[in-house]
Fold:
Amino acid sequence: MLVLGERLIKTPVMSLQVGMKVAETLSPIIDPRTLSIVAYEVEGPMLDQQPSFIRIADIRELGDLGMIIDSSDEFVGGDDVLKLKEIISINFTLHGMKVVDTRGKRLGKVIDYTIDTDSFTIQQLSVQAGLLGSLSTTGHMIHRSQITEISDTAITVRSTEKKIPSLKTAGNIHQTYTNPFRKPSKPQPETTQVV
Structure:
């Protein structure tokens, strides 16, 4: 199922062990190399460490009640899991990131994204044009397959504009241009044979 990333912020984290809400999500931890969410930073009164995180691998189910986990033992600190520590240190934030195409044209900034809840991969970026661009367009939805590069400052996507090749003339314009109003002439044979 596809959901907007904003929908999973302030989502309750429910524990099967105690049968109640133990935390609430604050922000996603996104791996820019795979464009997937690996964990969520969480807050709550029952947490031992600050900041605490819930890894996506430890979420049993995402339902109407929120994210369901086995117990509060699933929460980890920033230094507990080496891979998570590495991704947290990147400090990658998708919201507000500049989006440009391969030709260098600025398309706008990321205002939200769509997540596949089965794999927690980001499938689409919702991009809003700047002040002048917003007068002519409402925004763009960019699929992850269009993304060519993610840097610290911008996301580069494939350009949708087609490059029109220029006409090459070989010195004589009549070789490349045909008058559409002139009737095509029928070729005349040089000799006629009667059989």
In short: Helices lie at 82-90.
